[in-house]
Amino acid sequence: MSVVYGKLKPSDAARCAELESQLFEGDDPWPERAFLAELRAKHIHYVSARADGKLVGYAGIARLGRVRPYEYEIHTIGVDPEYQGRGIGRRLVSELIELACDSVIFLEVRTDNTPAISLYESLGFVNVGLRRRYYRASGADAYTMKRLPPEDPS
Predict the structure, then answer these.
(1) CATH at 138
(2) Residue ranges of the N-acetyltransferase domain (predicted)?
C-alpha cells in the first residue's frame, strides 16, 4: 500500500465528515461545514493521507496568537479504521509538528483513547491536565497534552 501525504482540500470535507462520524460517534463529530470553515481560515493548516487516491486520514493544527512566539493547537486527527495501525496517524502528527517546528503544541485527547495517548507520548507530548466532560455530547473527559519545542543545542 502506498500512502501519499499532502494538503487537505475543500473537496475532501465530505469525506472528513464521514470519517469523523465513524471515529467519533457519540462525541459530536464535525460536519462537512466545520471542515470547510477550518480550511478557509488562514491560521489553520490541514494535511491529508491518501491510499490509492482515497482519503484515509487527515489532521489539522491552528496557530494561536498574532505575534511570535506562537503556540499551536491540534484541532483534529482521524485515520480510517481500515488503515489504522500502519503509521499513518504518526506521520500526520509528525507533519503538524514539523509545521509548528519551534513552538509549543497543545491537544486534547479522550482519557480512554489509549492508542492515541501512546502515540502522542511517543512524539514528545506530556499530560498537563484533565478537562472534565470536555466532550459535551458523551460527557467524556479529556487530557490536555503539551509538546515543548526542541531545545536549542547552542
Answers:
(1) 3.40.630.30
(2) 3-150
